[in-house]
Specification:
The complex is a heterotrimer of chains A (about 170), B (about 270) and C (about 45).
Chain A lengths: L1 H27 L1 H4 L5 H7 L7 E7 L5 E4 L5 E8 L4 E7 L11 E8 L5 E9 L7 H9 L30
Parallel strand pairs in A: 4-6
Antiparallel strand pairs in A: 1-3, 1-5, 2-3, 3-4, 5-6
Chain B lengths: L1 H6 L21 H33 L13 H28 L2 H32 L8 H20 L5 H15 L2 H11 L19 H48 L3
Chain C lengths: L2 H38 L7
The chains are: A alpha+beta (about 170), B mainly alpha (about 270), C mainly alpha (about 45).
């Protein structure tokens, strides 16, 4: 029995050491593990203009302007916000299907001299709420939620709400 | 904890046990085969029934998502695969502790048969995630903390499957595999909490979180049924493989004994 | 069929094919081992 206990103790100690080492490593490389910077991070860190990085946040309500460039390619200007800070983004190309005001986005590009961000890639980042279209419509009609303004109300207030009897419908 | 382990299967718990309250009561392969043999038909039937119901519910009856549309249905296979990849790996680590501390031969055998199935589930999680990411995010793959840590999990599964088979002496292979599995367990909390600790393209958890699930019940319930169905199927596959491995080992021992007898007889 | 439905269909088919072949493979291996065992050891414990 003592041999088994000793083996268990060795395992526990090794696990403790491994866990501590991993935690320290992850903390040390914290900055490299971040996939994108928020507008506040960008304003605090001021990445140099020649460095490409990812900027992420919510598309600010009422900020999207879509234009068609002279060569026929679609182009868009919008503001990305994390609440306290906002950065203007310009992008030429096709935006993802889920792109809309109030949606999360992650954009890859460079800072411009005027402080705006020139993106070469825009990815949509949806949040963790899943709801049927009827429930989303009901929340909007009741004035409980405007998707352009940001996240849905607390899940407990809608995740058991009945769907309309007409049943399923496409998104 | 020793006694608790067998209580779960029910079949042997009631029988008086001369072996005492030891983990090694299941080390007796005959007893293991008898106990699980009665369970197998029910396990297969339950897996197919629950999974069939869950997939029809998810693919046909459940509503679309208000912004993702029909594509949200990929979730009903993607999320169970992700849970199995992580839960299965936690099981592999538990088997490895049993193997290293108690030198339990059945734990070695189960771990060996578990890792290819776990690797398959993780590969499916990555593939379905990619198929979901392209239409929703606009990309098949990004190197964010969640996706990268799941890829590491896939390589850990593959590494374990290869390592335990790389030794001529199966016991040494099992020991090396158990150590790899236990070192790799640090990756499981990283997978789970990567979306909370760092900015990732992948969204945070909808179901396994402290507050109410961020998912409407009409989407949540089919997801849970699919998760139960896939878990039952996963368990059935692993158990069937382990039973086969136990019998194959007995076959090899019998063949060896017969060859030895025949060698000795003509003299 | 729209592109989105293609992605859904491929996801489900992939999952069913992989898990289906795992299940069939495990069942076949199990049956073969059981038959061999019965041949080698007819009096033995038949699981």
């Amino acid at each position: 029995m003592t041999r088994k206990k000793r083996r268990l103790m060795v395992l526990l100690l090794a696990g403790l050491g491994l866990g501590t080492a991993t935690a320290l490593t992850l903390t040390a490389f914290q900055d490299n593990l971040v996939f994108f910077l928020s507008p506040s991070d960008v304003i605090a860190q001021r990445p140099p203009a020649e460095r490409a990085f990812r900027l992420g946040g919510l598309v600010e309500a009422g900020s999207v302007e879509r234009v068609t460039a002279s060569d026929g390619r679609p182009s868009a200007t919008f503001r990305v916000t994390d609440g306290p800070n906002t950065i203007t983004v310009t992008y030429t190309g096709v935006l993802p299907d889920l792109f809309r005001e109030g949606q999360g986005v992650v954009t890859l590009g460079r800072l411009q001299p005027d402080g705006s961000f020139r993106a070469s890639e825009v990815l949509a980042r949806h949040d963790e709420t899943y709801m049927p279209p009827e429930v989303a419509d009901a929340l909007r009609r009741a004035g409980h939620w405007n998707p352009a303004q940001g996240a849905a109300p607390p899940a407990a207030s809608w995740n058991t709400a009945p769907r309309q009897p007409d049943g399923r419908s496409g998104g | 904890m020793d006694g608790r382990l067998t209580a779960g299967t029910g079949a042997t718990a009631a029988r008086p046990n001369p072996g005492g309250r030891s983990l090694h009561r299941f080390a007796n392969p005959g007893r293991f085969l008898r106990a699980t043999g009665r369970l197998m038909p029910f396990l297969w039937a339950a897996a197919l029934l629950v999974l069939g119901a869950g997939l029809v519910w998810g693919l046909v009856l459940s509503p679309a998502d208000w912004q993702q549309g029909e594509t949200v249905r990929i979730m009903y296979v993607h999320v169970p695969m992700a849970w199995l990849a992580m839960g299965g790996y936690t099981g592999l680590a538990a088997l490895s502790v049993m193997s290293l501390v108690w030198r339990h031969p059945l734990a070695d055998l189960t771990a060996r048969e578990l890792s290819p199935v776990g690797a398959a589930a993780t590969a499916l999680c990555l593939a379905t995630g990619s198929l979901w990411g392209k239409p929703m995010w606009g990309t098949w793959w990004v190197w964010d903390a969640r996706l990268t840590s799941v890829l590491v999990l896939f390589f850990l599964w593959l590494g374990h499957a290869a390592l335990v088979r790389a030794f001529d002496d199966p016991e040494r292979g099992a020991r090396a595999g158990a150590i790899l599995a236990l070192v790799g367990i640090v990756n499981v909390p990283i997978v789970k909490f990567s979306v909370d600790w760092w900015n990732t393209l992948h969204q945070p958890a909808s179901v396994a979180r402290l507050d109410a699930p961020g998912m409407h019940v009409d989407i949540l319930y089919p997801l849970l049924v699919c998760a139960i169905g896939f878990s039952l199927l996963f368990a059935a596959v692993v158990l069937a493989r382990t039973r086969a491995a136990v019998m194959e080992r007995r076959v090899r021992a019998l063949q060896l004994a017969r060859a030895r007898r025949e060698e000795g007889a003509p003299a | 069929m729209t592109l989105h439905w293609w992605h859904i269909a491929v996801s489900y088919l992939l999952t069913l094919v992989v898990f289906g072949s795992l299940a069939i493979g495990a069942a076949a291996r199990h049956r073969a081992a059981k038959r061999l065992l019965a041949q080698l050891d007819p009096r033995g414990e038949r699981p």
